[in-house]
Amino acid sequence: MESxxxxxxxxxxxxxxxxxxxxxxxxxxxxxxxxxxxxxxxSLLNKQGINWGVTLISATILVPIATGDIVLKDLLNTLKxxxxxxxxxxxxxxxxxxxxxxxxINQSPEVTVALVFGTIMGVVFxxxxxxxPVIAAGITYCIxxxxxxxxxx
Length: 153
Hints:
By secondary structure, the protein is mainly alpha-helical. It is built from seven helices and no strands. The protein has helices at about 1-15, 20-35, 40-65, 70-80, 80-105, 110-125, 130-150. The relative contact order is 0.09.
């Protein structure tokens, strides 16, 4: 019963904050929870969901390459600029940090509660997005703002 109330509260917060991603995710979990004997699937989603999400995000990032919108020349041109180098370094850092984070979750699953709460708070109240590549872009933006501030003085 407590899980229903907790998910209902998250649904309400997502609705009030007009956060479509969290709203859809919560509704999906609630619907899955309604299905008899869905414990096995929910357990599988709990264990493999992050990997599935990373795979989906990775596929999404590769689509412009598949459609020809981004070609190798674009990568080479990007690496000629500070923005390209900072973005590449941030992408590497986020990938390494993410692998350490998954290791931490596997080692100390109880930290997941705080991570979920923090993610919900950031998404709902700070208009954040729960996605690794977007984090790398955000870090890149911050570093570029610092570089731009320092070089324009």
